[in-house]
């Protein structure tokens, strides 16, 4: 083996052992962007969520007539702060059926598919006023998603199924729940697998670019699955930091040197 071949081998080694760059680890890029444009993009993406099949709704009915309210609402276990547990919400919430309906005691079935939460509130309130209650001021309705449930898997610190009790959750908050992306996770191409009436669809978002704020997938939806692919550095088993890369190079150099010495002695 001559010196030219050795140089070629070393060049290949250096290309394979390149560490993960700061650019690959930085969210939303390093270029200057008008903050006003970013805020505008986020506001444009904040469209009201429309209910889908499989969603779990929490419907709270309050009135001065406690006895009448009890007819329409199941008794739910609450903690000392008056907050229902996730398990309690699962058993006492209202699941949207495959036909897009929920069934409220006494009121019966109501179609809520593709409705916003505000629209469902108005529908429930109107039906109660038309058939049971007398005064609008005596009736208060609150409809919320019973937790926003999603799955995070791939190159994150803690994979798993998470539930956040918020009206809106962006992808950064979702990833933070899983401990964030690891140093060998691909932030440039994060996959979001979303549920639709026709089935599942895969979407892509680049979290290293400020264009992520413009993405319709910046805000996640119930039952989304977020998958973070590994960078090539992991699949090759090479260093992810400069120190690790140098260690790998030194190890391989020692191997090449040994091979050269042995080949000359043969």
From TrEMBL:
InterPro entries: Poly_export (IPR049712), Poly_export_N (IPR003715). It holds the Pfam family Poly_export. Keywords: Membrane, Signal, Transmembrane, Transmembrane helix. GO terms for molecular function: polysaccharide transmembrane transporter activity; porin activity. Residues 46-135 form the Polysaccharide export protein N-terminal domain. It comes from the Bacteria. The chain crosses the membrane at residues 242-262. Gene3D superfamilies: Outer membrane lipoprotein wza domain like, wza like domain. One of its GO terms (cellular component) is cell outer membrane. GO terms for biological process: monoatomic ion transport. This is Polysaccharide export outer membrane protein. It comes from Kordia algicida OT-1.
């Amino acid at each position: 083996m001559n010196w030219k071949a050795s140089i070629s081998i070393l060049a290949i080694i250096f290309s394979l052992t390149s560490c993960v760059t700061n650019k690959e680890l930085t969210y939303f890029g390093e270029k200057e962007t008008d903050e006003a444009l970013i805020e505008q993009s986020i506001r444009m993406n904040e469209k009201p969520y429309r209910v889908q099949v499989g969603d779990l709704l929490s419907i709270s009915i309050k009135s001065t007539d406690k006895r009448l309210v009890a007819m329409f609402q199941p008794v739910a276990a609450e903690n000392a702060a008056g907050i229902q547990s996730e398990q309690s919400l699962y058993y006492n919430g209202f699941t949207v059926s495959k036909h897009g309906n929920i069934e409220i005691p006494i009121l019966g079935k109501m179609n809520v598919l593709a409705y916003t939460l505000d629209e469902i509130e108005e529908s429930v309130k109107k039906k109660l006023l038309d058939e049971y209650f007398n005064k609008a001021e005596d009736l208060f309705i609150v409809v919320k998603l019973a937790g926003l449930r999603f799955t995070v898997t791939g190159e994150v610190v803690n994979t798993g199924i998470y539930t956040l009790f918020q009206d809106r959750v962006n992808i950064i908050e979702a990833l933070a729940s899983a401990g964030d992306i690891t140093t060998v996770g691909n932030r440039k191409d994060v996959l979001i697998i979303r549920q639709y009436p026709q089935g599942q669809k895969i979407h892509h978002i680049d979290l290293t670019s400020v264009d992520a704020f413009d993405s319709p997938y910046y805000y996640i939806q119930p039952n989304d699955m977020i998958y973070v692919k590994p960078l090539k550095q992991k699949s090759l088993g090479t260093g992810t930091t400069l120190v690790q890369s140098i260690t790998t190079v030194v190890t391989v150099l020692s191997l090449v040197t040994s091979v050269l010495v042995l080949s000359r002695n043969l």
